[in-house]
């Protein structure tokens, strides 16, 4: 019993904690890291190299926004963009998403508070070209 406990303690000590700044999002208590976070840990890349949006990412978002602005009743809905933070649980404890595009009812959305959203959007559109989904599966977001 004591040998098993020591072995478990060694494993815990042997694993290097991944810094929080490399967490892309936390969904269902699972951390999703930026793609290539391991290259940052090894010193191959600086953190900034994996955190910015690529030209592909913004190109796709621009195309989606063009369609939304042409077809959505903007008097009824507000389109929020730019990785808007959203706490998806009432406790708001380490459970947030950074939303690429969120469509939210103007009735529910009051004046900006300078905080993450606390009310759920009607629609969320994610364009994830930076999330490392290798450990949790490519279809993790599909709901």
Protein model, in words:
With 143 residues, the protein is an alpha+beta fold. The protein has four helices and six strands; from the N terminus they run H-E-E-H-H-H-E-E-E-E. It has helices at 2-14, 37-41, 48-51, 55-71; strands at residues 23-27, 30-34, 77-87, 96-105, 123-125, 131-132. It is globular. The model is unreliable at 3-11 (pLDDT under 50).
Low-confidence stretches: 3-11
Structural class: alpha+beta
Percentage of β-strand residues: 25-35%
Number of H- or I-type helical stretches: 4
Query: What is the overall shape?
Result: globular
Task: Spell out the helices and strands N to C.
Answer: HEEHHHEEEE
Rounded Rg = 19 Å
Fraction of helical residues = 25-40%
Number of strands: 6
What is the terminal separation in angstroms?
A: 43 Å
Mean pLDDT: 80
> Numbering strands along the chain, what is their spatial order in the largest sheet?
1-2-6
Could you give a short account of the major beta sheet? 3 strands, antiparallel
């Amino acid at each position: 019993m004591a040998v098993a406990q020591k072995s478990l303690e060694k494993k815990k000590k042997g694993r290097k904690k991944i810094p929080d700044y490399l967490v892309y999002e936390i969904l269902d208590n699972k951390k999703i890291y930026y793609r290539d976070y391991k290259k940052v840990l090894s010193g191959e890349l600086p953190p900034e190299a994996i955190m910015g949006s690529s030209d592909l990412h913004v190109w796709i978002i621009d195309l989606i926004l063009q369609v939304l602005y042409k077809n959505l009743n903007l008097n009824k809905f507000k389109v929020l963009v730019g990785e808007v933070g959203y706490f998806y649980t009432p406790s708001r404890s380490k459970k947030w998403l950074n939303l690429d595009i969120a469509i939210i009812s103007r009735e529910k959305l009051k004046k900006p508070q300078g905080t993450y959203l606390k009310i759920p959007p009607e629609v969320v559109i994610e364009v994830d070209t930076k999330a490392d989904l290798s450990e949790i599966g490519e279809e993790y977001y599909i709901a």
